[in-house]
Specification:
alpha+beta; 368 residues; 11 helices; 15 strands; 20% strand
């Protein structure tokens, strides 16, 4: 279906007429150019989907990730978006170097183990969260793998921090991102959450919608059981997302037609209250000032139902045992997820819930 058909444009002008895409607002009235700008801007996001026909992953026979790699592809989209925004700034969509920067960034993600953020390297790195090649990932598992992979393959130019237990510690972030000369390492902040038990608790919806309007937001990865999406915007009670569930041939970037397969012209919509409660929020803080703005956005006027908390420093818990010995909990005590950051088992359980809990979800709503 041609997304620029009259049917599409007429449907998009139904209430509500305002759409927000990673902090940018679009008025979708028929008289303005909001609709055209929205579709143009969506096509400039990097879109990673299932691929087939690539070299086997590791020592397996997997030459496609179709059917299991959707969260891995969402992780690729999230990291690629962070790289674009980090390099080109807030006005990345209209930057004069956008085309060549997109092409260069895609090269890091091509389906070949020689490329740092390929499906091969992500799938193999899944071992740190006890995932075998061909297993589904949940949002927290994907966050941990991105952190581990980017630490070893720093081509992205970002410091990735996973804020566990729904808690962001400002002291930890500042120490992580501050160089010896006082300059700031650009930060990709990932916050895995579970906003309910078997379904998303509706009390969190207003604050979740607000996330997509904030400066520095990179949206969220999540979805429904065994189906992951990259959420980048909202329209009323619905969320706009990029869907990786299209299988394309693995390609090189030798010609423009191959490069065009990384652009999506058919964004999707679905009701936000139909999402699985396990998801991972993402924010980009290119500077110390950006991080201060991030903190202010959640502490100056705290929401009634907060998605996560922000603390100044990590608490210390001293546990006295019967023999008088003290045991101190620290960031080094993790459950084998890898990567530290105080990773706890609870969110790994959340990942498992994300992957297998049967949850009835409304079919994707296209405002088309």
């Amino acid at each position: 279906m041609d997304v620029f058909s009259d049917l599409v444009l007429d449907a998009m002008t139904q209430e509500p007429r305002e759409l927000c895409l990673l902090g940018r607002k679009y008025e979708l009235d028929k008289e303005g150019d909001g609709r055209a700008r929205f579709f143009r801007d969506m096509s400039r996001f990097l879109w990673f989907t299932y691929r087939r026909g690539f070299a086997p992953i590791g020592n397996t026979a997997h030459q496609t990730d179709s059917g299991w790699g959707c969260m891995l592809r969402c992780g690729q989209m999230l990291l690629a978006q962070a790289m674009l925004a980090s390099e080109l700034g807030d006005d990345w969509l209209s930057h004069k170097d956008l085309v060549k920067t997109r092409r260069r960034i895609v090269n890091y993600f091509l389906d070949d183990p020689r490329h740092p953020y390929s499906i091969h390297n992500i799938a193999v790195r899944g071992s740190i969260v006890k995932k075998s090649i061909g297993d589904w990932f949940g949002p927290n598992a994907m966050a941990q793998v991105l952190k581990s992979l980017t630490a070893e393959q720093p081509e992205c130019g970002l410091t990735v921090h996973v804020a566990m237990d729904s808690c962001v510690c400002t002291e930890t972030v500042v120490n992580l991102c501050s160089r010896e000369d006082g300059s700031w390492r650009p930060l990709l902040l990932l916050i895995p959450l579970r906003l309910g038990l078997d379904k998303l608790n509706e009390v969190y919806l207003p604050e979740l919608k607000r996330i997509f309007t904030l400066p520095g937001t990179l949206g969220a990865i999540g979805g429904r059981p065994n189906s992951a999406y990259y959420f980048v915007g909202t329209q009323g009670d619905d969320t706009v997302y990029l869907d990786p569930h299209t299988t394309q041939l693995a390609v090189s970037l030798e010609d423009e037609s191959s490069f065009s397969t990384y652009s999506c012209r058919e964004p999707q919509w679905t009701a936000m209250d139909s999402l699985d409660p396990s998801l991972c929020l993402a924010f980009l803080c290119r500077s110390r000032k950006d991080f201060h703005v991030f903190v202010s956005n959640f502490t100056d006027k705290p929401a009634k139902h907060q998605l996560f908390t922000i603390i100044d420093r990590e608490p210390s818990f001293d546990i006295a045992f019967a023999d008088g010995a003290d045991f101190v909990l620290s960031d080094d005590d993790d459950d084998g997820l890898g990567g530290g950051d105080g990773a706890q088992g609870g969110l790994e359980d959340s990942d498992e819930g994300f992957e297998i809990v049967p949850m009835p979800g409304a079919a994707p709503i296209q405002h088309l």
